[in-house]
Design goal:
The structure is a homodimer. By secondary structure, chain A is an alpha+beta fold. The first copy, chain A, has 6 helices and 5 strands; from the N terminus they run αββααβααββα. In chain A, a hairpin with a 7-residue loop joins strand 4 and strand 5. Chains A and B meet through helix 1 and strand 1 of A and helix 1 and strand 1 of B. The structure holds a DNA duplex.
Chain lengths: 193, 193
DNA sequence: ACAAAAGTGTTGTCTGTACACCCATGC
DNA sequence: GCATGGGTGTACAGACAACACTTTTGT
């Protein structure tokens, strides 16, 4: 957002004296998007001396996983913010491109062992949607037969009777993530890909 | 170090205006231990409002991997610092225990995919030493036959003719980490455990 | 000769991967 | 009836886990 001099930046703000880093991240995300209850995770702190030309600034970067259903209306209008596909990333100010790369890498690692990918999807999603999410994160094709066998074998997806019919004639069954089953299993550590 | 009121803390210091976070970490490690060229990695930034009773302090935590040969002489004397085995960790000030737990967990993840474990060993080390290092990091026994087969199959260890004879009658062969071979292989991503 | 740690192989099980066809439906 | 995307099964290979005995040598 904030296309200062034709160059974009990630959204950000300053930490207040009476709020934690995590609280600041939540507040800033909310103030610029209206979104609440979003999965956020601290990424890294960037502290090169001259990284910000305006003075000495240390940035504690967070990334958020935002449900693809939620973004349209709320974000775009108010703060000339924009969503950008990773493969169309424009030049970014300061070290913000590094931040994006770091976040992408972290997401790839994380998504292999934690069910955070589901936060990026609507509550009801189809296997093809989940597949293409993983393909986007890994920027690589994944065999759909192996993928669905593996996902279903984890036993943390509940199949619904309902089908999503907008993107195909046949329609794809909806699934929901089963938080309870996941929590029972997560102690033994399970692998998502 | 710094047993203020009978409670220990991790070592730390303040970032200067003309140094990066990474430089500060290196400087502080050096000033308190005399050590240089140590593998360090930023862990996490801790920013709860009241985490430090002395005022609002945000701590950017780093962890270092220090060769077990190097520590004896330099550290202990000068700053009443002490090394503590993880399973004998005393109470620590503020959120420092959390930091140690976070670092331990990060190390377990990291060591599975990156050859950073070798930084903790002397340049020449034996397979039993490497094994017990991994057992310490994972706090779990590892089968030595499977372990040595896997490590050797990576092809990044050079066996020396020399043996380490102080800890057994038979003696164990020394190995060295082969940085070059590792770099050739690392693009494909290899798994250490 | 014995104690103490180093070293070494095999087998079964599981997991990952490659691969191709039929199904259901709207038009 | 055909075009489109959804759904399913099998076979092979490689990785992993379990497991016990022999070797070396200092005392």
């Amino acid at each position: 957002m904030d296309p200062g001099l034709g160059v974009w930046s990630l959204m950000g703000g300053f930490v207040k004296i009476d709020e934690s880093l995590d609280e600041a991240a939540v507040r800033i995300l909310h103030s610029l998007t209206g979104l609440d209850n979003i999965y956020m995770e601290q990424l890294h702190s960037y502290g090169a001396v001259h990284r910000d030309i305006g003075g000495r600034v240390i940035s504690v970067a967070y990334f958020a996983l935002i449900n693809i259903e939620d973004y349209e209306e709320q974000v775009l209008d108010e703060h000339d913010a924009r969503w950008v596909p990773l493969n169309e990333l424009p030049d970014l100010i300061f070290d913000h491109k590094q931040m994006v790369q770091d976040a992408h890498q972290r997401l790839r690692q994380k998504v292999a062992n934690h069910p955070i990918g589901f936060a990026l999807l609507p509550e009801k999603f189809t296997l093809p949607q989940l597949l293409s999410l993983y393909e986007a994160i890994y920027d690589a094709p994944i065999d759909k037969r192996n993928f669905s066998r593996k996902m279903l074998s984890l036993g943390i997806l509940k199949k619904l009777a309902e089908k999503e019919k907008s993107s195909s004639r046949k329609g794809a069954f909806f699934y929901v993530f089963d938080q309870e089953k996941y929590e029972k299993l997560s102690n033994e550590g399970l692998s998502f890909i």
